[in-house]
Amino acid sequence: MYWVSTGGESEQGVRSICCVPCLCTDTKLRDDCVLRRKQNGGPLRRIPLSRRSHIIGFQPLTTGIAQHESALERDFVTLTSFLDPSASITSQPITISYRSGTRTRRYTPDFLVRLITGRSELVEVKYGADLCASWERLKPSFAAAALRAREEGWAFRVVTEQDIRGPALENAKRLLPLRGAAWDTQMGARALAVARSLTAPTFGTVLAALPGSRALALSTIWRLIARGALRVELSAPITLHTPVAAI
To answer: Domain span at residue 138?
Structure first.
């Protein structure tokens, strides 16, 4: 995750946060970027749009509808709404005008996220390779966004697939549809009681202790996790060995 400090009021302020020539966090990708920079004697060419998955669509959220313009933006919305169901996500919330040299330019960040904690974040979503290739061009825009965010009392950050895609996103894709799904409340109450009675409950030990249909017990545990009644570590794959805690 590339944080651009809300205290950074200039291009130099952004440079001080992201001070390496290539911001790709994947080692192989970063090495490839650096190698091609040396071979080309300068910045990488911008990756054509056809090299990326551009998917325009909408996601209904409990707080409204969020528009996305790429598969990565879609995944960001999915992950954010999963981790904070009360989050408000506004697409292309503002357009910022700023001076770059003698020219006036405009920049529109991808999202404004208002979290349940009261924190607000202005967010740019970029593929790592695109960020690496276009850093010099994007840097003034990010500096302007950091300044605007500070004026509004927000944070500004840039995220890539390294931050969005992983076990947490896979868990979100599996669990989000289950949040509103019908479930057996009696089996749910039993599962929570079992989890509270065990010293170190796991998904598997709770499942094994439930009477009746294994399929019903399994679906009930998944729904309890989806609803947050059973807590698990969402940044790792959920297996039978995953510790659970009843709230």
So the answer is: 2-165
